[in-house]
Please model this.
Amino acid sequence: MTHPLESDLALYSTGDLPLWRRPLVRLHLSGCDGCRSWVADFDNDRESIRRLAAEMPVGVNWDRMAAEMSANVRLGLEAGECVASRVHKPTVATGWRVAAASAGVAILLVSAWWLNMPRADSVALVRAMHRIAQAGPWHAGGLALEDRGPTVEVSASGIQLQQNGGTLGMSQGQERPVNVTLSVQGSARARYIDADTGQVTITGVYAQ
Amino acid sequence: MRSRIFPLLLGASALAFGQFGPQSIAQQNLAQQNLAHKIDFPHDAPVTLAGDEWGGSAATVRGGAYAIDVRVALSLRNASERRIRGITLTVLAQEATAGGKGSISVPSLDVAPGETFSVRGDLHLLRPIAAGVSPMVEVSLDGVLFDDLSFYGPDKLQSRRTMMVWELEARRDRQFFKALLEQTGRDGLQKELLASLARDADRPQFGVQMVRGRATNTAGERDLKFAFLQFPNAPVEPTSGMARIVGNEARGPKLVVHNRSPRVIRYLEMGWIVRDSQGREFLAASLPSEVRLPPSSSSQLLQDASLRFDPRTSVESMTGFVSSVEFGDGSMWIPNRVQLDDPMLRRVVAPSPEEQRLVQIYRKHGVNAVIEELKKF
Model:
């Protein structure tokens, strides 16, 4: 007859044996007095220990015990220092670390902006900041044209549609237009002439 | 502490460059490689597509929109029974967005039935990313003008009116050059073409910004009255007008016009010439107005628009002139060459597209080529 290990019996007595092994042990105990007595002894021992632990020692000075424990810890550390010398690295104050991390994140975001944001958007942002810095809402001057919607602009180099300083649409032929016209209904035209054939092409953009 | 900061930085780095960097670059490249386009002509259109070339067209992601460079060359065939004088195409990236719509027009054409001709365009448009990518750009027909001044097309861009003006100007100018050739011969024609070239080179073109919408009244504003160039036989007579001037801006032009013709007028366009304190004169803008003006009646034309000029420009005077009129039956009036011979207009108003075409032919091929060209009409 094969008996379970003592460790399994001990675990069985505390209910810590894995579920799938419990039925086998229980079956064995039902037919083995020796093992059943082992389990009963484990139960009795556990009960005795629990009872002893519940009784507080008389006259224990808890403060003194705590001081002794601290002293032992320090003693252990000093003994460790004697065995192997520790390298002390210069430490940076916590505040500096946070500042460095913040600066790193800021540099990261500015780099991402610089590398990826369209130039027109950056220009618009700079212009808006410049306007806020220069004029400010406390000035009672007239509104800039850009503040009132898309702006149609014509110049000798062509036509373009802008909003908040950013270009929305334009005629941008490689050659300069021979003429540009602006309509107050919100459109502009640029006239180009093919140098070889003389064919006239007129491109237009519309604000609305 | 360090073991907490570095993962944080690495995470932020991945987040930032993942959001803005490689992913968006990949998106840009994808868009550049696949500029989806559509050419949509009605089945009964008088032109058919013979070929198209989109080389150099590209779309680039910019913030929340695609910036689209449209470089298109279309080869079109006249599928009608009439000669084509002009065509306007709509180039649409997004209907409702400012900067989403453009147009390409070719005036002064003379395309016989069955012949092919080319239309080239170079535009920069915007399309919101949310609008998708298929198709990114749509080219459609807005209108075709024939030699009998009949028109085909949806005319959403009012291209019938515009092309009609160009065609009337072309006929007027060809007639002028033909008459000149008959009266003064080859040398007289050459002299006039050279004079046109010289005027073109001397014509000032100053930067002007325009925005629609009502501007608030501000301190320092002054009202400035328009002066008018009167054309004796024009159907419309401008009688008074003014605009508010503040700094280098001219706001809210108001004009009163009188219909002295026996016909109803439904549209008129006026030219707006500005002279600054330094004596510089230039054509600032055109003032188009949809009106219903019965015979012998007057009407006030208001424009909620502002013009801003170069910062050095201090507006000293303004001059208006009638540049085109459309009657109730769709026929149009434009100034004749005698009326345009006013010294101020000659200085600031550009010649017609047809005159510029003929001058370019002269520059490239000489006066004989111009004479041959005039004989075609």
Summary: Chain B touches chain A through 78 residues (CB under 8 Å). Residues 18-33 of chain B have pLDDT under 50 and may be disordered.
